[in-house]
Amino acid sequence: MDTQVPKFVKKVFIRSFGADPSPPLGTILGNIGVNTVNFCTAFNSYTSGLPNYFLLKTTIYIFPNNSFRFIVDLPSTGSLFSLLRFERTIRVKVHDRLNDKIILCTKLFSVVQVALLKFPNLTLSQSLPIIKGSLRSMNLTVVRI
To answer: Is residue 1 part of a domain?
Structure first.
């Protein structure tokens, strides 16, 4: 890692596993002197485990010798579950005495994925209560399937 002071700091939004050396990213980094192919390869390998619909806020530090370092800010827990709600929500119809209710559910596997993604330095016993609070605020129920 470089211990130098960065010459430039750029903040851009890039889709996970979607960095491409063509414009606009290639123009932004190429004008500064960064090798855009190396950046795109490093970024795509870093985000290869994420779904490609995540739009990630990325801070790129460019040093005087044209080397780079980037930090990726992951989406908030609420937006992760909003994507999960859009992608993998299960609708369960519950019959009550007075009326029928539809309960929105998500799979336990998806909850564990979000917990591991959002809190990589915490154990599941520490991160799942945080995720459970987000689920409760979104009216999602966890099911084991």
So the answer is: no
pLDDT per residue, tens digit, the chain (145 aa), is 546 888 899 999 998 888 999 999 999 999 999 999 999 999 999 988 777 777 889 999 999 999 999 999 887 777 776 665 555 556 666 666 666 677 777 778 778 878 888 888 999 999 999 888 888 887 777 777 6
Q: What is the pTM of this model?
A: 0.65
Percentages of the chain per state (helix, strand, coil), in multiples of 5: 40, 30, 35
Beta strands in the chain (DSSP E): 8-15, 55-62, 68-73, 90-95, 100-107, 140-143
Cα(106)–Cα(36) distance, integer angstroms: 39
Asked if 53 and 92 sit in the same domain, the reply is: no
Residue 2 included in any domain? no
